Structure formats: structure tokens, C-alpha cells
Amino acid sequence: MFPTYVVLCSACLWNLFLQVTQERVIEESTDDFSFDGLPGAQHEFKIEVPASQEECFVQRVAQNANLHASFEVLRGGDRIVDFYVKDGYNNMIKEITYKSEGSIEYTAPINGNFQICVQNIHSRFLSKLVYIYIVTVVEEEWSKYVAEIEGLHTAVQNFTTSITEVQKSIDKVRLHQATSRMNVIKDWYLLTGNNAYVMYWSVFQIVSILATSCFQVYFVRKLFNIPNVTPSSKPRA
Fold first, then answer.
1. Long-range contacts: 142-147, Cβ < 8 Å, 24+?
2. Which of 3, 15, 112, 167 could be disulfide-bonded to 56 (CB atoms 3.0-4.6 Å)?
3. Residue 11, pLDDT above cutoff 50
4. CA distance 202 to 207
5. In terms of pTM, does the model score above 0.70?
């Protein structure tokens, strides 16, 4: 069984059986300074992985860019999958096996296309709904801004340090928000599942009570149903 590959890009998103919740692409930084101007990309989506199959995505990562990929299985059987990242030469970089959630951090030494794959090989009959969050950021691009300021002979060392710390804090907040959204989605599926279970079980109990009551009424009526004649067809005294 060959895996399915999907290319993640800033201009297009895949629609093949992907239920995309949100995509945000961080554009290239311009001449105007922006706190949100780091080059890179951010993707978050849900995907249904069929039983005994895997789904792969190809993400372009720049040299020295930080790649963060995390996942969480929202529903489907035991909620166990395998998650791994490979480089453009099909070499395994990092792998998470037999887990329901996890994350991978990697700094790309060169430009390349990285494969991010989810395997549902531990289940032969049940598909898994998996939430995936991918972000790539080139923090070294901040040095270009620093060089421009230094070219103006401006003492900006403390300012640069503060901006770097702010950007790191923003990245941490984004990761925390993604984790919170995953928990909310997981709780929603758990709530709807429990509601369906209670409803079906209640209907089953109501049907059982009605069937038992009908049987009891029928049995009691048959018990007191005495014929007016004897077995020899004579009137009963």
C-alpha cells in the first residue's frame, strides 16, 4: 500500500478527504518592520487516515529553519498511530511510534522537502481522525534586520534582544494555543460520543421495558382465561 503525498504550500491546500480547520502562511518579511514578519509557514488541519494505511505531506523547509510538527488522534479505536518525519532523501529524522499524541522538533541543515507522515497500521478495520499542526520558522532572518540597524550606526543590541525574546514568546503562545484547540476538539468528540451512547442505551431500555410489560399482560390474561366448556364439550358448572 503506497502512502498518499500532499504538498503544503502558501497558495493552495489539499481538498482530498482533508477537513481543513485553518491555514495561515507567514509571508516573507518586507522593508517595513513587523513583529509577525518571520518567513515560514503554519498549517493546522484534521485528516481521516484509513485502516492499515498512511498519509504523508511534503513541506518545504528553508536552510536553518526550525520545523515543529505535532499530532493528536481525536477518535478511532485505540487512538494509536505512528508519526515520523523524513528528509528529501527518504532518511528517517525522527519517529514517534504507538502513541496517541506527540510532537517533533527539528532544525533543517539545508533547504529541502520534508515528509511528514501518519501511519494507521495498528488497526485493520478502523480509520483514525488525526489533528496535525505544522510550523516552520527561520529565526536567522532577524539578523538581516539587525544588520540594517547596525548599518545606520544605531545602538540596538538591547532592542534586538528584546525583539527576539518577544518573538520566542509569541511562538510559545502559538504552540500553547494549538494544544488548547486540540484539547477542545478532543473534548467535543468525547461529549458527542457519550451523548450518543446515553441516548441509544436509553432507547434500548425503554423498548425492553415496553416489551416486558406487554409480555406480562399477555401472560396474566392467558393465566385467567378459563374456557366455558370441559374437555368433553360439556358446559362447565
1. 142/38, 142/167, 144/29, 145/29, 145/33
2. 3
3. no
4. 9
5. no
